[in-house]
């Protein structure tokens, strides 16, 4: 009986120690995937452009989209006006893939609920907890696709 009590006490001690450590681990640095998804949601779904850029984008931000200049200012200038012109725009995250410092978000971007939209792949590079580089490719969703597989 005494041995069972000692074993039970030891198990409870280990469980209590594990629970005490767990919150400290959860409060640690965010993963690159968490950083990019939080940025993407704040920027494109919540439309809080200034805060998203301030919180998640590094000052030396490099842009590979040929229609957008480097740095954070072009994003801060462009997206509020875009959202004002397209108040019903919708951006849906379909999948997120992360490997090392790169995070990819495959998403559906629509200017309005009636719009078929575009399939977009955004690729972000994260360095020291900040997004420092971005690539994207997009493809219109056709009315009559050649197959029934869908783009997502």
UniProtKB/TrEMBL annotation:
Describe the location of the SnoaL-like domain by residue ranges: 36-134
Asked if the record carries the keyword Amino-acid biosynthesis, the reply is no
- Read off the SUPFAM superfamilies from this record: NTF2-like (SSF54427)
Q: Which UniProt keywords apply?
A: Signal
Please give one Pfam family short name.
SnoaL_2
The protein's matches in Gene3D superfamilies, at most eight in alphabetical order, are given as: 3.10.450.50
- Has the keyword Cytoplasm been applied to this entry? no
Q: Where is the signal peptide?
A: 1-26
Q: Which InterPro entries match?
A: Cyclase_SnoaL-like (IPR009959), NTF2-like_dom_sf (IPR032710), SnoaL-like (IPR037401)
Superkingdom of origin organism:
Bacteria
Q: Name one GO biological process term.
A: polyketide metabolic process
Query: Which spans are transmembrane here?
Result: none
- Protein name as catalogued: Nuclear transport factor 2 family protein
């Amino acid at each position: 009986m005494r041995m069972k009590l000692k074993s039970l006490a030891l198990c409870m001690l280990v469980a209590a120690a594990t629970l005490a450590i767990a919150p400290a681990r959860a409060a640690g640095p965010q993963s690159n995937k968490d950083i990019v998804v939080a940025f993407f949601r704040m920027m494109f779904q919540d439309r809080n452009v200034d805060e998203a850029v301030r919180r998640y984008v590094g000052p030396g931000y490099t842009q590979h989209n040929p229609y957008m200049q480097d740095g954070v200012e072009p994003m801060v200038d462009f997206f509020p006006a875009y959202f004002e012109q397209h108040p019903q725009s919708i951006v849906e995250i379909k999948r997120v893939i992360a490997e090392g410092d790169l995070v990819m978000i495959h998403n559906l971007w629509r200017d309005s609920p009636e719009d078929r939209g575009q399939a977009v792949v955004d690729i972000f590079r994260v360095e020291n907890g900040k997004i420092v580089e971005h690539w994207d490719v997009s493809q219109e969703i056709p009315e009559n696709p050649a197959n029934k597989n869908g783009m997502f």
